[in-house]
Specification:
The chain has 208 residues and is of the alpha/beta class. It has one domain (7-203). The chain is 28% helix and 14% strand. The protein contains 6 helices and 5 strands, in the order αβαβαβαββαα. It has helices at 7-15, 54-66, 93-102, 140-147, 181-186, 192-203; strands at residues 44-46, 76-82, 112-118, 157-162, 167-173. The chain has a 5-stranded mixed beta sheet, with helices on both faces. Strand 2, helix 3 (93-102) and strand 3 form a beta-alpha-beta unit. Helix 1 (7-15) packs across helix 3 (93-102). The radius of gyration is 16 Å and the shape is globular.
């Protein structure tokens, strides 16, 4: 029987996404190393050209929660930005972060509505969003990188939003939270630093 949630489910989910291409001695295999597509996720909502600013996400949150019983409503918003360029490699922090949130490696992930976006690798993007590498229909993603201060290197960026005000309250990254494959496997899918971070974020959000 497949586990739906929890550390073991998150670990198994991450193992199922190794990317479609592996090249020895190459740092990354983008764009073939697709990692975990948001289309395969039930608990992460893909961001779009008209749904990505903190204010837009706050409004979307309110609409979604309006029809949910008060006791079951989420408390806040998490935004995950990633490139997945290292999906077949050793770090795999984007994949691990996605799996940890999607499969709720910590039950506190269920207290948040989670939105995600996949970016092209943004090396030397200083300040964040200044490289206009996303073009055409994806040009809005350059602004997303700037808004949430995405940096290539520490892997996936997590932003936290107060859904009632539509304001950003914090940001962090996968490496800071120990969401690398080495730690993920060692901890058998448990994510203690992510759990602590979500506890801290919940303490800063309105509880009703």
């Amino acid at each position: 029987m497949e586990l739906k949630e929890g550390p073991a489910a998150a670990l198994a989910f991450a193992r199922g996404y190794r990317g479609e291409k592996y090249v020895p001695d190459v740092m990354y295999c983008y764009p073939d190393a697709v990692g975990v597509p948001y289309a395969d996720c039930e608990n992460i909502i893909p961001m779009t050209r008209s749904l990505w600013t903190p204010e837009q996400l706050g409004e979307d949150f309110q609409r979604r929660m309006a029809g949910v019983p008060a006791a079951a409503r989420k408390k806040g918003i998490i935004v995950i930005l990633k490139t997945e360029r290292c999906a077949p490699k050793g770090l795999r922090a984007c994949t691990v972060t996605t799996a940890a949130l999607e499969k709720r490696a910590t039950p506190l992930a269920a207290e948040f509505l989670i939105y995600g976006v996949l970016l092209k690798p943004r090396d030397d993007d200083e300040p964040a969003g200044s490289l206009k590498i996303e073009t055409g229909p994806d040009a809005w993603k350059n602004d997303v990188a700037a808004e949430y201060q995405f940096k290539q290197g520490p892997s996936a960026t997590l932003g936290f939003i107060d859904a009632k005000t539509g304001k950003k309250i914090d940001r962090t990254d996968a490496v800071e939270l120990g969401l690398t494959e080495q730690d993920f496997v060692k901890n058998e899918g448990r994510t203690p630093k992510l759990h602590e971070k979500l506890q801290a974020m919940l303490a800063r959000l309105p509880q009703s």
